[in-house]
Amino acid sequence: MALIKSISGIRGTIGGAAGTNLTPQDIVECTAAFGYWLQQQGATPKVVIGRDARISGKMVSQLVSATLNGLGIDVVDLGLSTTPTVEVAVPLLQAGAGIIITASHNPKEWNALKFINKRGEFISKSDGETLLQLIESGAIRYAEVTDLGSYEEQDGWIERHIDLILDMDAVDADLIRKKAFKVVVDPVNSTGAIAIPALLDRLGCETILINGTPDGFFAHNPEPLPKHLEALSEKVKATGADMGISVDPDVDRLALVSNDGSMFGEEYTLVAVADYLLQRNPGNTVSNLSSTRALRDVTERYGGSYFASAVGEVNVVEKMKAKEAVIGGEGNGGVIVPVLHYGRDALAGIALILTHLAKSGKSMTELRATYPDYQMVKDKIQSPEGVDLNSILEKMHEQYREEDCNTIDGLKIDFPDSWVHLRRSNTEPIIRIYAEAPTLERAEALVGQIKTDLLSLLEQ
Fold first, then answer.
1. 49 and 75 Cβ atoms separated by less than 8 Å
2. What pLDDT, on a 0 to 100 scale, did the predictor assign at position 426?
3. CA–CA–CA angle 75, 78, 82 (5° rounding)
4. Alpha-carbon span 21 to 33, nearest angstrom
């Protein structure tokens, strides 16, 4: 059981004791701090909320709404929705902020509050630090009975989000409809089961849905990794589909399966979208330090420059704005298209991938073969309580001082033909270890070597 308070929000397991898990007290405490912080900024006293289909979602949503109302803040509730849909809705509704109730890729026992600003973007690091201080201080004043906030439910925002996607110049809906693609979708029993078929229907695709009941009882581990997508792969092969689509519960990460049932690779979702957009509009790109080198290669192919940011969507967005990137995101299947909004958006990624596929005339397998073939291994170890991870990373840095090292986010070690990145997770009590190399064997060996070194230092 766990409770994690970070600059990006609060996340934890439902039940148990307050202060150590995500209980009603913790939900109210953190929501109140966010609402009070919002008022202190002089922002519009209106917050848009939405949730994925987690079992605890309705309970958490009710607590959030009532707490905001108690502060005198109006609530617009989008109900079952997606993270990018809420992000799009906040500025269009001229709200002061948004709260997305989702624990992203975490299992069903988890839930979380993600805080976004009036632009529909995750709050900044400095704002997050201020919020954490407010949570600890408890210095919050509530509204008088005559000043309580209002509550309103609004439907139709997923459809409006889809409208915005189809209105993008880079999306050729008519061409996609002519191709009549057959697509298998695994939305892991969450709100992707509502949003993705609606999008594909507008694009004239034949949709085959598995794990499509949005009840929060995830049919498998909800993180869209290859080891969790075997059923999707088999369904693609069995039905002769053109592609398979998997998303996480809040629909901001997109993983693809090729027409032969092979994994397109979540790292290559962003690469493929960038390839298509850069053909139309060459420019700069951004991804985080844990993402594939293939994006750099594709960017340079079209004369642009690639830039790396610290891990975390807010860091990617900040770097994208600074470098005026035309496309960016994260190697976990997160695609950020600035002309739409500055947030990871699996629905936008789907529409752009389908356009790319339709225009190229290639199959998914053929398209994947056009990109540099790096192999990545993503691993992790538990982060022991009380351990000074910064000191451990400093020792690792010293051990690999002869290599090209980057310390803006944990420790990334660049070798001539490969790299490894280790950092503390912002969402789980773990140390993530990612490595990429020309072959899977080399990447696995690199992870093994680093884990051995790391565990040795942790045991000292």
1. yes
2. 67
3. 130
4. 18
d(CA 284, CA 321): 10
The gap from C-alpha 244 to its chain's centroid, in whole angstroms, comes to 19
Which among 81, 104, 190, 309 is annotated as catalytic?
A: 104
Domain annotation for the chain: domains and CATH numbers: 3-155 (3.40.120.10), 160-368 (3.40.120.10), 375-459 (3.30.310.50)
Determine the 3-state secondary structure of 452 from DSSP: helix
DSSP 122: B
* C-alpha to C-alpha distance for 338 and 336, rounded to whole angstroms: 6
pLDDT at 400: 94
Annotated active-site residue 104? The verdict is yes
**From 11-20, 158-167, 383-392, 412-421, the region with the lowest mean pLDDT:** 383-392
Please check whether residue 274 is in contact with residue 379, taking contact to mean a CB–CB distance below 8 angstroms. no
Say if residues 446 and 437 touch (Cβ distance below 8 Å). yes
pLDDT tens track for 129-176 = 999 999 888 789 999 999 999 999 999 999 999 999 999 999 999 999
CA 75 to chain centre: 24
Residue with tokens 């298998």: 184
If you search the block for the tokens 């009590």, which residue do you land on? 429
φ, ψ of residue 265 to 5 degrees: the values are: 100, 120
Sorted by sequence, the CB contacts under 8 Å of residue 100 that are 6+ apart come out as 49, 50, 51, 83, 86, 87, 113, 114, 116, 250
For the question of whether the overall pTM of this predicted structure is more than 0.85, the answer is yes
